[in-house]
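User: Hi! I have a protein structure encoded as tokens and I'd like to know what sequence might fold into it. I'm fairly new to this, so please keep things simple.
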């Protein structure tokens, strides 16, 4: 009898030890998973911006302060805001002459910078005709470089950012024209073909409405089904199966 009791206690101890070990392993795996997610994804909450002296001198913007509604929107659409930040970059780097270099220089700024400038003018029409220092979103390649995801030590052929672009970025850094701050676009923007402009707003809104529709449909159906099963349904194998699964 005592021998069986000792064996039983030993089996219980082993069972508890295995259960505790399983819990420890699960917690360790969860910690590793969360640490990996946070360490790899934390830079997604940061965004690189470039400060440029932009002159808002497009003829389409003349008298925009006096326009409203569709006329104002049409004037904003006609204005070439991309040309404005291109001129600004060319003024900062006048040695850039060839078409290929101009294209590379322009590529350090996000293609969405023109939209940013348009929104600025829409909010503050007094910018028209003036030169203002504005912070514009950098391209995804520049952003990745500033976050340490692209190494300058690699050969030029093995990285997405070229040597001349590195030189321009470093020159802008020396002039205090590059900064990395919190990525508000990540929360306020929807899907975009440009990685630096993409956000979760569309997905968040879609998830909210999905949950709302699910709640509206599932809650009354679930309550009515519970009342029926409890008060009116006959007792048989089907109702037993449904109750067990619920």
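Assistant: Happy to help. Inverse folding works backwards from shape to sequence: for each of the 246 positions I chose a residue that suits the local structure. Here it is:
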């Amino acid at each position: 009898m005592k021998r069986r009791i000792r064996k039983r206690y030993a089996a219980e101890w082993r069972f508890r030890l295995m259960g505790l070990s399983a819990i420890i392993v699960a917690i360790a795996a969860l910690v590793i998973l969360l640490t990996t997610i946070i360490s790899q994804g934390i830079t997604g909450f940061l965004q690189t911006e470039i400060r440029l002296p932009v002159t808002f001198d497009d003829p389409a913007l003349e008298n925009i302060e006096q326009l409203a509604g569709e006329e104002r929107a049409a004037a904003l659409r006609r204005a070439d805001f991309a040309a404005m930040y291109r001129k600004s970059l060319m003024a900062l780097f006048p040695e850039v002459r060839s078409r290929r270099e101009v294209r590379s220089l322009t590529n350090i700024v996000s293609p969405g910078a023109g939209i940013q400038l348009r929104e600025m003018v829409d909010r503050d029409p007094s910018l028209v005709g003036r030169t203002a220092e504005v912070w514009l979103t950098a391209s995804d390649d520049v952003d990745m470089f500033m976050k340490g995801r692209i190494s300058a030590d690699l050969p030029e052929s093995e990285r997405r950012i070229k040597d001349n672009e590195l030189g321009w970025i470093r020159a802008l850094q020396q002039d205090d024209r590059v900064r990395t701050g919190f990525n508000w676009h990540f929360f306020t923007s929807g899907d975009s073909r440009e990685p630096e402009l993409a956000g979760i707003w569309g997905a968040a809104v879609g998830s909210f409405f999905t949950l709302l529709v699910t709640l509206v449909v599932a809650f009354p159906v679930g309550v009515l089904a519970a009342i029926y099963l409890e008060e009116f349904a006959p007792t048989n194998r089907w109702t037993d199966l449904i109750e067990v699964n619920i």
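A useful reference point when you look it over: The longest helix spans residues 2-41. Feel free to ask if any position seems puzzling.
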